[in-house]
Every structure is written in C-alpha cells, then in structure tokens.
C-alpha cells in the first residue's frame, strides 16, 4: 500500500488520508494511490463506510500543474476515472475537508457522497484563472449541489469561498469544529446506523424557475467581465448544459470545452504566467536555509513620488517607517500625500478610519539621519543623480547600525558604484519599486556584485510580506525592465521619425493589449525623465545626443500631463490624451530637418517592431546573465509594464510567433539603410532559433 494515501480502520469506517507534497496535487502517483485505497476499502468486508481526507493544510489544491503537457497528465487512472470510481462505489464515502479544496480537489470531493468540512476550508474552482474550466465533472456536479446561479458564479469567476457559506446545501452536509476527520467518522457511523445508501451527485437534477433567461443574463455579464478571455464563457456554457442535458451529455460538453481551452494560446499564456511567478522566487545559487535578517523597522529617504508609495507598503504590513527628507516642507507634503491616499481608500470603504490612524501612527517623519540609527533596512528614493546618491550612501554608512540593509530604488544607475560609496558593499542591494509603488505588484531586486546572500534572501522574503512579486536582476543600465523599455521606446521613436504619429503607435499597441501605449505612458511619467537619461547615457558613452522628437518636446517645455501638454495635450482636470496638431507640426519639422520623407506604417508593423525590440533586448539580458530565466522577463513585463496577460509576456509571445520568424524580421530591420545596430538579432536568439528551441 502506498504511503501517500494512509489506510486506517476506525471500527467499520476506513479512513483514507492523502498526504502528498504540500497541497495534495493530484498527480499520477496520488491518483493511483487513491484508486487503490478506494478499491481496498470497497473490497474489505470489515468496512461499511469510507472517509476520504487530506491534511490540515489541504484536502487537495487540485491538478498538479507541473504535470501539464507531460505524459503523466494523461496517465491512467485520470481524475474523472477516480471520481467515477468513488461515486459508483456501493459503500458511502464521506469527504472530510480542511484547508484548500480547489479545482480538481473540489471535484474529487464532489465525487464523494457526502461532505463534512471545517468552517474556513476554502472551496473554489480557480481553473478560469489559468484559462481552463473544471474538467473533472465540476461544471455538472456543482449546480446539482448548490443550484445554477451560485455554480455559474463559482465556475466563471474562480474565487474561493469558505465552506461555512455553503452550510445547508448538499455541498456541505455538516460544518465541523475541531477535528474534521473525527466529525466525518461520526457522520459515517450515523450513515451506517441509518443504513443510508450512497447519495450520488450525478443522480440529482438541476432546476431553475427562469433557467433560460438567467443564462442569457449570465452570458451578457460574463462576456463583459471576461474582457476577451474565452475560458469564462466556455465554463458558463458547460454549467448551462447541466440545466438542459443529461449528466453524461453535460460531461461531454465539459470535456470538449476543456480540451479546446487546453489547446488555446490563452491558456498556454496563463499557465505560463502561473509557473513563471512561482519560478521567479527561486534563486539557484542561494543555499536553502540561508538565515534571514530581521526587519522590524524601515527607513525611507525621500518623500517624493516613490518614497511615499514605498513607505505605504511597509505601513500596510504593520512595519514602522522613519521617513527622512531634506526640508520640512517636502516632508509635510509627502506625509500629507500618504494620508490623502489612505483617506481616499477610506472613502471607497476599503479602510476603516481607525486603520488610517493606525497606519499613519507607524510613520515617524524626520530631517535628521540620527533617527535612522536603529532601522534594519533603509531604502533610498532621492533624485536620480549619482552625486546625490553618493552623499546619501556615505551618510547612511556613517549612521546606520551594523547589519542594516542599505537599499536604493534607483531606476538606472549602477548599483555597484552606489555600493562603493559605503564600507559595507555586501549590505547594499537595489529594491526597484514601480510607480505607483503602493499599487504596482512588481519589485525588481537588484543583486550587486557583492550583495551578501542573506541580504538577498531577506529582501526576497520581505517582498512576499509586502505582497510584491520579486524578480532578481543583475546590474546593468536600467536593469531588466527599463533596459528593455529603452529599446521599445527607441523602436517606437524610429517609427515616429519614419511616418507614424503617437496616437497611431499607442492605438496599435493598446489593440495588441498593452495597458497603455508608450506615448501616453511617457506623458504620464514626464518627458524630462527620458530626456535626462538619454543625455546622461550619451555623455557616459562620449557621443553626441542623437536628435529626436522626444528631446524637442522636452526642450519646448512640453513635459507631459504635468505641464498640460507633451506628446498629447490635456484639458485642465482631465487625464484623457488629446492628439495635438502642435506635436504633429513639430514632428513634420523634425522630419524635414532630417531629410526624411514620411511613409505609411501599418499597425502590424508597429507591433512587430516594438515587441520584437523587447524580445531582442530580453535575449541579450539573458545571455549576459542579468536575468536567470526567460520567464523572469515575462514576469517583469506583465507586472510592471502592462503587457497583456493573455499573451504571457514578450518572451512567451516570441515563442508562440516562432523564434525563426522573429530572427528573420530582426535581420530585415537591421539591413535597412541607417538602421540602429541594436536591431542585430541577439546571438542567443539566433542559436535558439537555429536549434529549433524556444525560450520557455
Ligand atoms: P521625486 O522627485 O518625486 O522625489 C525625490 C524626493 O527626494 C524629493 O521629495 C526630494 O526632496 C527628496 N530628496 C532629494 N535629495 C534628498 C536627500 N539628499 N535627502 C533626503 N531627501 C532628498 O522622485 P521620484 O520619482 O520619487 O524618484 C526617486 C527615485 O526613484 C529615483 O532614483 C528614481 O529614478 C526612482 N524611481 C522612480 C520611478 C518613477 O516612476 N517616478 C519609478 C522607479 C524608480
């Protein structure tokens, strides 16, 4: 007998306990072990009823997603077979549910004849979140247990709910406090005493007083919420079949929907993201069990756009912050912005008044470095200027206690140089937040040449605590995200020079799915930022600044939303970009000064050039070892730059287009007269394409 399903007799009740991995993922080994244990209990004359249970952490969190696409995924017995075996058995089976009971795990529980659960056990069908639908009978059994409407919500939204919210429905026969297995055994004893036969969910029927009109309403609202995703619609149609078709026919509809989704690019992308976000937290050369430094108090330098948002992350996690500014006025302004943000959340009902006060109570504003002497971590978010950073880090080195982690939020500057301003470069790290820092989920963790392993491990753990998705980057200009962004911006800029307008480029990329095109984004961030970066880079490289429309706009004082005009113009109090003839005139003037005759540019060309520019730079970043894996670049782009989730990130997109096709296009761009040398395909990209391999 397998040790991943324990078999124990409690009087006439066989207790089968699944214990595989952290959450009982239903891989081939566990499915086989369940089937064997159920066979044994059904064949054992001493057994009159069966309890199937998991661990306190999880009954089962569902399919083992690491098996998807491998032979194990389809290895028999498949999940539907195991569920049918349980449901078809002659002895009553009671599921005893604690912790997570999700996806295939919930379907397994629905195959049991009765269910006993702890009140806070989490029940749900998260499949739509990875572009799938429940494929183990969930769409047919759930409406039979809780009714059509709640089942539609559960399957199409994918949000879990506590078991206690289903008390009184045949989904949860008994809510138990304390020992759920003991409660399920007692329930089974009652079934035996009353000679209650198995209650098979498949034999129940679904009814709804206005079934068809409800479904029509649901189709409209799901289509609206799904925003172009197909999985929620297919999931809805599968549940709809439970109303009008027999159980077996409904199962066929579910099966067809599942198979077509499994083969869809949408599900491939969403499954890729799911795995990529898990993988990003793994650092190959960081020994397991690296000790962590304790972070009880944090310092933040600079109460501007970023410093304020960064501070809020820690207050939200209950960690006190000392916020340091140069002048009282700047400090007061920063503190007032934080308070206003919290008060806005309060007005929306997301925070209670006492929570606002509790969070504000965790901040100490100061103008004195002496107040940073006892912080465990300090994050610098002052002006993006090496001389300013130098002064700050030299002062931190003198004032912070031994063992304090010294972090910079710099967007582009060389972290190793920043570390060299201190006598403790091993304690220095980059913590690159994204704006607005209290909202955006991405955190690029920049590992310097000398950053100590425990400093890195501590920051990874801290990222989780403040609910960020962390990706590790090596040191280079702009790290992963902004380095790729620079190439994307350059590709878009070349298109403007050649004949496109900002509104066309933004429109084409937004149609592709980007949350915001590069010119709307530029106006939001401020055109002075890119201008300063380009000037710095040209100076560092000792070359003259390449003339560009972007610089002409900045020089004309058109800095974006904050000045009422940039690439677009803005009306007072309104952030909607309005195409501006003045920009068009400036572009036309620029072209004629450069001797460029504008040509027509299609939306397809815009997408091809801008996205392939990201891919090509991404390949260079990988080759240089700045990022550990291609999927890390996808995680950065999805969570920090508004890349469409349904496309899985730029590197997966390149895989889907086919790397040889990407290389062919890049070669074509590189061969154009006067082409930017950056269009030369990255050697890694060429090698993968020639070997028939992909990034994934
Ligand atoms: P900001 O101008 O809004 O804020 C900077 C703040 O630092 C100001 O309030 C200023 O008074 C204060 N400051 C300057 N020198 C100081 C010193 N010596 N001591 C104490 N305070 C000082 O700038 P920001 O947009 O918040 O950017 C800060 C840093 O974050 C920069 O390195 C920037 O590259 C980086 N960053 C910015 C963004 C963004 O989108 N704005 C995103 C990621 C990272």
From TrEMBL:
Domain 3-hydroxyacyl-CoA dehydrogenase NAD binding, residue spans = 297-473
**Which SUPFAM superfamilies does the entry mention?**
6-phosphogluconate dehydrogenase C-terminal domain-like (SSF48179), ClpP/crotonase (SSF52096), NAD(P)-binding Rossmann-fold domains (SSF51735)
- Which residues are in coiled coils? none
Pathway it works in: Lipid metabolism; fatty acid beta-oxidation
**Pfam families recorded:** 3HCDH, 3HCDH_N, ECH_1
* UniProt keyword Lipoprotein present: no
Which E.C. number(s) belong to this protein? 1.1.1.35, 4.2.1.17
- Residue intervals of the 3-hydroxyacyl-CoA dehydrogenase C-terminal domain: 478-570, 606-693
Q: Name one GO molecular function term.
A: enoyl-CoA hydratase activity
Q: Say yes or no: keyword Lyase present.
A: yes
Instruction: Describe the reaction catalysed, as an equation.
Output: a (3S)-3-hydroxyacyl-CoA + NAD(+) = a 3-oxoacyl-CoA + NADH + H(+)
GO terms in the biological process aspect are: fatty acid beta-oxidation
Q: Which UniProt keywords apply?
A: Fatty acid metabolism, Isomerase, Lipid degradation, Lipid metabolism, Lyase, Multifunctional enzyme, NAD, Oxidoreductase, Peroxisome, Plasmid
| Listed InterPro entries | 3-OHacyl-CoA_DH_NAD-bd (IPR006176), 3HC_DH_C (IPR006108), 6-PGluconate_DH-like_C_sf (IPR008927), ClpP/crotonase-like_dom_sf (IPR029045), Enoyl-CoA_hyd/isom_CS (IPR018376), Enoyl-CoA_hydra/iso (IPR001753), NAD(P)-bd_dom_sf (IPR036291)
- Subcellular location(s) per record: Peroxisome
Q: Which family does it belong to?
A: In the N-terminal section; belongs to the enoyl-CoA hydratase/isomerase family.
Q: What is this protein called?
A: Multifunctional: 3-hydroxybutyryl-CoA epimerase, delta(3)-cis-delta(2)-trans-enoyl-CoA isomerase, enoyl-CoA hydratase (N-terminal) 3-hydroxyacyl-CoA dehydrogenase (C-terminal)
Per the UniProt record, the lineage of the source organism begins with: Bacteria, Pseudomonadati, Pseudomonadota, Betaproteobacteria, Burkholderiales
